[in-house]
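Write out this protein's structure.
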Amino acid sequence: MHIKIFGLLCLTLIIISCKNQDKEEKTSEWHTKQVAQENESHNTLYDIEKEQGWELLFDGETLQGWHVYNSGAPSVWEVKEGALHRNPSIETESNEDLVSEKSYTNYELVLEWKIGNRGNSGIFINVQEKPEVATAYQTGPEYQILDPNHMDQDIPVKKSGCLYGFSPQENEAITNAGEWNQTRIKQENGKVEFYLNGVRTATQDFTAPEWHEKIKGTNFTNYPEFGKANQGKISLQDWYFEVWFRDIKIREL
């Protein structure tokens, strides 16, 4: 009898000890995550990045270095909590795509983005500003950004990370609603690669005859300047939805 009682007491103590240990591990994990989040550093360059030639395209505080396509200062974009933010409460008659001041040919671009519920946006490359061309998408191919809850999510050539309207994801890259995502775009000698959260999602040679044949099979054939350039400006799309961009860095190759 005493042996049984002793055994039960030992078992109880073991169970309590395991629960306490599990609780301590979870608490430790939570604190580690909390500390990491509190010490996150955004819109800055480490010394090693500077040595590698990286430059910031967004300082985290101002809209310096950006302007509206074919225009001046934006009215719908603001800096909010260290991110370029498209304010959805402001309505305009036309899109206000943000465009970089400088053009790039061979480069590597990285940034983080987050899209609002059912939102749609994108990153245009090789953008040409011309008075006779109304919007950035009429000249520059697009790295698609789409919320998983958007009605177009099931269309393969409209998923995030795609070369919009031309090819589905080469490899599946998952995004979750309301979360930050990482984009990498590399262009060298007219050949571009898109990456989403570390996964390569698109490749295209803009110098190949095949590219121009692809254009003919899409609505972009209606825009004479689309996809012709292998250099140009970077543009962040305003498609009326809420979207955030941060940690926008570029280095020329």
